[in-house]
Specification:
The complex is a heterodimer of chains A (553) and B (445).
Chain A: H1 7-32, E1 37-38, H2 42-52, H3 59-67, H4 75-102, H5 106-112, H6 121-132, E2 133-134, H7 136-139, H8 141-160, H9 163-166, H10 187-205, H11 211-225, H12 231-253, H13 258-284, H14 305-312, H15 315-340, H16 343-346, H17 351-358, H18 371-401, E3 405-406, E4 409-410, H19 411-430, H20 435-438, H21 442-446, H22 449-460, E5 464-468, H23 478-482, H24 489-493, H25 509-513, E6 519-523, H26 541-552
Antiparallel strand pairs in A: 1-2, 3-4, 5-6
Chain B: E1 3-7, H1 11-23, E2 27-32, H2 44-48, H3 63-67, E3 70-74, E4 77-81, E5 86-89, E6 94-96, E7 99-102, E8 106-108, E9 121-122, H4 127-136, E10 146-149, H5 153-164, E11 169-173, H6 185-197, E12 201-204, E13 208-213, E14 219-224, E15 230-232, E16 235-238, E17 242-244, E18 260-262, E19 273-275, E20 280-282, H7 296-310, E21 323-328, E22 331-337, E23 347-353, E24 360-366, E25 372-378, H8 384-392, H9 397-402, H10 404-407, H11 418-429, H12 440-444
Parallel strand pairs in B: 1-2, 1-7, 2-3, 7-19, 9-16, 10-11, 10-16, 11-12, 18-20
Antiparallel strand pairs in B: 4-5, 5-6, 8-17, 13-14, 14-15, 21-22, 22-25, 23-24, 24-25
The chains are: A mainly alpha (553), B alpha/beta (445).
The structure holds flavin-adenine dinucleotide and iron/sulfur cluster (2 copies).
């Protein structure tokens, strides 16, 4: 006898097909990095060097030796040769510097510095590689787009959309989250972590290795801004794609919850339009590409010399951006936090928040709720805030006085240190790479200086609170478990206290998952916002007076 | 130093301990046979369903107890020697106390059904029941079908649990509509539909006759009394209510009825022995409440009250206005005040149901004085504070409807139904109530 095929089985089959598509797309995407052949002609080397304005007499020779070849070099071989060439050139002049130094020939020694080529080796190598590649990927960018992005998107959607049926009726469906390897810190989660961390390491520190990806997106980049794709274009595009696909998942999962639906739409909008499209279009109009919603100090290089110079050179629009950036941080941000809480930024507008709330949603339960984590959080995030402000003061002081250091601290050094430690490692590698194990808001909770600033406003001067519904809490712990910011929501709710915490990003998930309707995010009068005593409704009023009186003691 | 011993580390015992610690320096020991640390019983279902891990059900971190100098002792109390103020443990040791709080909670009812002690037959109350369920119903291959006997709050939770692992469930309910001893007809029917919508095989108006087992003592099927139908199954969940867990007191001097008999000060007949939570039975019911109140909130309130008494502020257990809540699969339920299954002589009702059949409110009020008595709300969250005030101030049903917008507690942007509700009330009662806009001022007044 034939067993009838149920809709569930069909949907599961579709999901499996989707998974296969996705994995193939991902495999081709990853594999594409290893393809292609990299070399330049002598002329190309010459014109490249000219375009860069290098003064070194030997870089041309070294680079020519390295990359003008009939050999088939993949990007890794190519990169190592190019980096060696730059190194050789710099070594040559370093040797001269040492020599003249020994001879005490200061004039000669001083002359040598102009021949040195500064910059991160992989970034220099990236610039050469971008010009040097050839091969199937570069020549078939459109096809490759479909085989990578296309397959992965279609696959992911095939995996996600059947949940409309599989999850059953609308409502909170967290079934099995702690049974699945991917969402319960199993081997799949670790694998994803390794992939993400590697991705960020390549992106930040070895962009030349990812040059094949830029070829895939060259056509799209050219249409949008007239130029070729950089590794940052790849990142921005990928970011948007991932957010759109994972937003589909959010829409399905929380389709009964209008707050979630609207919030998801909002972060999507700000990511695609503000973070991606507007800067691209501005670039195509020869303006400085600027993300109008990215507020300092999250936008930590806003006050860096290069940015200030570029804004100064961009006429009216530059001036507008400068004023807007300052107004955004000093006025708009705190005023909005006063009215709506920090959520208006962190879970409605911000790009980091946007990724956390889409790609990161399956991992939100992994944030640590321990008291020690909360202590660590307060130390870390406020330190980063201080660090970012101090760095900016040093930078601005040096910018306006023309000096190189302030209080003995070199402007370049502190900027580089911040960019490396906070900008790349904390916000990127750890912040996103660690999603599957430590939760989706590691950066927002422990590292983001803007979040620290917003949090201070939210804690001390805001109309926002999460109201606890009298005595209805049954201490089940769903709220705490699913709070991505590691807030022990239950600790407040079970005492009848409202939740007023600087770190709350107002994602609204605690309220969504609460099975007893205990929590409501709302903006109301400041009076009565904080009720730090145990007011459990349903209790005898005299008893409550007594309990609170004892509390006050 | 006075030694306070508490038997039971549930919400009532733990609340008592916390508040005694707040108000005094007394030595405190909590005894439990169930788990090392306090956990939230109400969250057991979420562990099986994979929403949480067991550790997430523990409201306090493990260091909390030491820091607050609350000693924890794992052990099963077999008897109490109240003359010598000492407890005897199954493990053979004893523990002496100066004051004793009995907070032993409930146990699932078993009505002497044949086969009720077979393997694979379980209640859903203790941590051990959860472990048992995990053993006998890890998935739909090991457990091809489960039968649940008894249609109360725990029964429907167990049904949802098993359903989450795609295990087919047959749900035997003695009443002819789900929980209709508590819920009025409309609400009860709504939950019947919700159960059926989840593909749970709901059988109304039937009783369990017997549970059959195999040679190994493992349950294999059940038989329905009314029809004689036999249903093959691997797991039988017994959820026909709970009763106080007081058997170990039978030979003590402490008076027991169904539960431990207590007065309004939560004192038993034996000096310096108190009882709180599910296991306590009031000599006389308080207001419209039952003498035994087996809910989370009352356990918590009793814990707070007894702590005051023990710390020298002798105070009566005087619960405020009744409230409760639950979730029936995907439908949330809250109640404030009283809405009986059947309207009483002096009562009148107003019922509104959304056309999608998953939301409703049911208001109970006095026919003559028009005073608001209570509300059931399904699928719409409402503000506890609002109704608590209404009940204290004895407001009219008209007042409630007029200010219904203040009561809404749904997340922001949710669709509001107050207009529709008020319109229906006006139409049915020939009134002309105008819904007032939500006012923060009133809410916080
Ligand atoms: C699945 C489920 C869901 C529920 N959901 C809700 C809900 O949504 N809302 C609500 O209001 N209520 C709910 N309840 C009821 C609520 O959990 C109980 O009212 C509450 O837990 C009772 O608390 P308690 O402290 O009185 O006793 P318990 O929590 O039962 O604690 C008593 C403890 O004492 C221990 N003990 C007993 N006898 C001895 C002994 N002789 N020696 C040593 N230790 C002993 C027990 O093992 C147990 O650990 C639910 C109950 C269950 C089982
Ligand atoms: S407290 Fe609630 S709203 Fe705030 S971050 Fe945590 S889950 Fe989100
Ligand atoms: S989810 Fe709701 S009921 Fe559960 S602990 Fe949190 S506030 Fe309380």
């Amino acid at each position: 006898m034939h067993k009838p095929i149920s809709t569930t089985d069909t949907m599961k089959a579709i999901q499996n097909i989707g998974l296969v598509f996705f994995l193939i797309g991902l495999a081709i995407f990853t594999g594409s990095l290893f393809t292609g052949s990299f070399s330049l002609t002598e002329q190309e080397v010459a014109s490249f060097i000219e375009s860069k304005g290098y003064k070194s007499d030997i870089i041309k020779e070294k680079l020519t030796e390295a990359v003008v070849t009939d050999e088939h070099l993949n990007i890794f071989q190519f990169s190592s040769r190019v980096r060696a060439a730059y190194q050789a050139s710099n070594d040559h002049y370093d040797a001269l510097i040492a020599k003249y130094d020994a001879e005490k020939n200061w004039d000669k020694k001083g002359e040598q510095f102009q021949y040195k080529i500064y910059g991160k080796s992989h970034t220099l190598s990236y610039e050469v590689a971008k010009k040097a590649g050839s091969g199937f990927v570069k020549e078939n960018a459109g096809l490759l787009w479909w085989l990578t992005f296309g397959l992965a998107i279609v696959g992911a959607l095939l995996f996600i959309l059947p949940n409309i049926v599989l999850l059953g009726k609308e409502g909170i469906k967290n079934n099995g989250i702690y049974h699945e390897s991917s969402t319960n810190r199993g081997w799949i989660a670790w694998l994803v972590l390794v992939y993400l961390v590697t991705f960020y390491l390549v992106l930040y520190f070895m962009p030349d290795y990812a040059v094949n990806w830029t070829y895939i997106l060259d056509p799209i980049s050219k249409t949008l801004n007239g130029g070729e794709a950089s590794q940052w274009f790849v990142y921005g595009f990928l970011y948007c794609v991932i957010m759109i696909v994972m937003a589909a998942r959010m829409y399905i999962k929380y389709r009964h919850n209008k707050y979630q639906v609207i919030r998801t739409t909002s972060v999507l909008f700000f990511q695609i339009v503000f973070a991606f499209l507007i800067p691209e279009i501005m670039a195509s109009l020869n303006m400085p590409g600027y993300d109008f919603k990215n507020a300092f100090p999250l936008d930590y290089d806003f006050f860096f010399e290069w940015n200030l110079d570029s804004l100064r050179d961009s006429g009216a629009i530059g001036l507008f951006i400068l004023v807007w950036g300052i107004v955004l941080t000093l006025i708009i941000v705190p005023v909005m936090v006063y009215f709506f809480g920090k959520r208006w930024y962190c879970s409605w507008v911000c790009g980091c928040g946007g990724l956390a709330e889409t790609l990161g949603d399956p991992y939100r339960q992994h944030s640590s709720k321990k008291l020690v984590s909360w202590k660590l959080e307060r130390w870390l995030i406020h330190s980063v805030l201080v660090f970012s402000l101090f760095m900016t003061i040093v930078t601005l002081y040096c910018y306006f006085t023309g000096t190189e250091s302030f209080l003995g601290i070199k402007s370049q050094w502190i900027k580089d240190t911040y960019s490396f430690l906070i900008g790349a490692w904390f916000a990127g590698v750890i912040g996103t790479g660690f999603y599957p194990i430590f939760g989706n808001r590691v950066w927002c909770r422990f590292g983001c200086p803007l979040a620290a600033y917003l949090g201070l406003v939210q804690r001390f001067k805001s109309r926002f609170r999460i109201t606890t519904n009298g005595g209805q809490c049954i201490s089940c712990g769903n709220c705490s478990t699913y709070c991505e910011q590691g807030i022990d929501v239950r600790a407040y709710a079970q005492k009848g206290e409202n939740i007023i915490r600087s770190s709350c990003v107002g994602c609204g998930i605690c309220s969504a998952v609460c099975p007893r309707g205990v929590l409501k995010l709302e903006n109301g009068p400041e009076a009565g916002r904080i009720n730090p005593t145990e007011i459990l409704l349903g209790n005898d009023v005299d008893l409550m007076a007594l309990v609170n009186q004892n509390d006050a003691k | 130093m006075e030694h306070i011993v508490i038997i039971g580390n549930g919400i009532s015992g733990v609340t008592a301990a916390r508040h005694i610690r707040k108000n005094s320096d007394k030595k405190i020991t909590i005894v439990s046979a169930e788990t090392d640390y306090f956990f939230s019983r109400t969250a057991l279902m979420y562990v099986y369903m994979g929403h949480m891990k067991f550790e997430h059900t523990q409201p306090y971190e493990n260091w909390f107890w030491k820091k607050n100098r609350i000693e924890l002792k794992k052990g099963y109390v077999t008897s109490i020697d109240s003359n010598n103020k000492s407890l005897n443990f199954a493990e053979g040791d004893t523990l002496s106390y100066d004051k004793l709080i009995i907070a032993t909670g409930s146990k699932p009812n078993k009505f002497g059904w044949p086969g009720q002690d077979l393997d694979g037959v379980m209640g859903m109350y203790h941590k051990q029941d959860l472990d048992n369920l995990e053993k006998y119903a890890p998935n739909k291959n090991v457990c091809k079908r489960a039968v649940i006997v008894g249609g109360g709050l725990i029964g429907i939770e167990l049904a949802e649990m098993l359903h989450s692992r795609h295990i087919p469930v047959t749900f035997l309910v003695r009443e002819n509509s789900f929980w209709n001893g508590v819920l009025p007809e409309g609400e009860s029917a709504m939950i019947n539909r919700e159960i059926l919508r989840s593909n749970i095989d709901l059988r109304l108006g039937v009783n369990l006759k017997e549970i059959k087992g195999d040679a190994n003592g493992k349950a294999t099927s059940i038989v329905i009394a009314e029809t004689g139908e036999e249903i093959q199954c691997d797991v039988v969940g017994l959820t026909a209510g709970v009763s106080p867990n007081v058997d170990f007191l039978k030979d003590s001097d402490i008076e027991i009825g169904r539960g431990v008999k207590v007065n309004r000060f939560l004192e038993t007949n034996v000096k310096e022995v108190y009882a709180i939570g599910d296991c306590a039975e009031q000599h006389e019911a308080i207001g419209s409440r039952r003498p035994i109140e087996a809910v989370w909130y009352t356990g918590r309130m009793m814990g707070e009250t007894v702590a005051q008494t023990i710390c020298g502020n002798k105070i009566e257990y005087k619960p405020g206005h009744w409230f409760n809540s639950a979730k029936f699969i995907d439908i949330e339920y809250q109640t404030y005040g009283w809405v009986w299954a059947q309207a009483k002589e002096n009562e009148s009702r107003f019922y509104w149901e959304h056309k999608d059949g998953t939301k409703c409110i049911h208001i109970n009020y006095d026919k003559n004085t028009r005073t608001f008595i209570g509300i059931n709300t399904f699928g719409i969250r409402m503000r506890h504070q609002f109704f608590d005030k209404i009940l204290t101030e004895k407001r009219s049903v008209e007042h409630v409807l007029e200010h219904l917008a203040d009561a809404n507690f749904d997340p922001e942007f949710y669709k509001l139904y107050e207009q529709e509700i008020v319109a229906k009330f006006n139409q049915e009662n020939g009134t002309n109530i105008q819904l007032k806009k939500k006012s923060w001022k009133r809410i916080f007044a």
